[in-house]
Amino acid sequence: MNVSDAVQRRKTIRDFLADPISNDVIAALLAAASRAPSGGNLQPWEIYVINGESMAAFRQHMADAAPTSEMEYDIYPPSLWEPYRTRRYTVGEQMYATIGVDRDDKAGRLQQFARNMDFFGAPAAIFCFVDRKLGPPQWSDLGMFLQTFMLLAEEAGWQTCPQEAWAAAHEQVRSFTGAPEELMLFCGVAIGKANLDHPINSLVSERAPVDEFATFL
Against a cut of 0.90, is the pTM above it? Predict the structure, then answer.
């Protein structure tokens, strides 16, 4: 698979099969992804892997743990403005439409959102942390590392779901992983085999045309 194919095929998967993935495969993907660009070669990513027995233990932990009291960080700015507001709400409406959840079905929407906390049934996942003293340039490094990881997973025949939603459960994640307080939870990434029979995985999100976001001087 060439890079262009991996970019086109990668998408956010929200229902996974139970097919297991080995820690050796995940370790190899992480090692390869660590070649991602990193300003000053800081390599700011700190990764915790849950898989197999630890995934089962984590799911039980989430079932037993008290709710997080506050967000780790704001996923979106308050009062989101255009064109970002429309983009966000459009993809949300399209996603819920695939599973027949209407705009007014708050219970259905909450039920679907809750599946984030189960990694959408994925057999394995990583949590990505970053030192709290680091800044936006290092957060951009995390993005490049995670995109590289997801493209490499696609090349290897595995699918992924990057999840900033874990910012709403950072206390539960920290208590399970033992990550120190100086590390901030950025996101989780579910990894496994996509359930291609589930309608939610039919969604292909829209992208703005180049002339909307690029200025050629």
Answer: yes
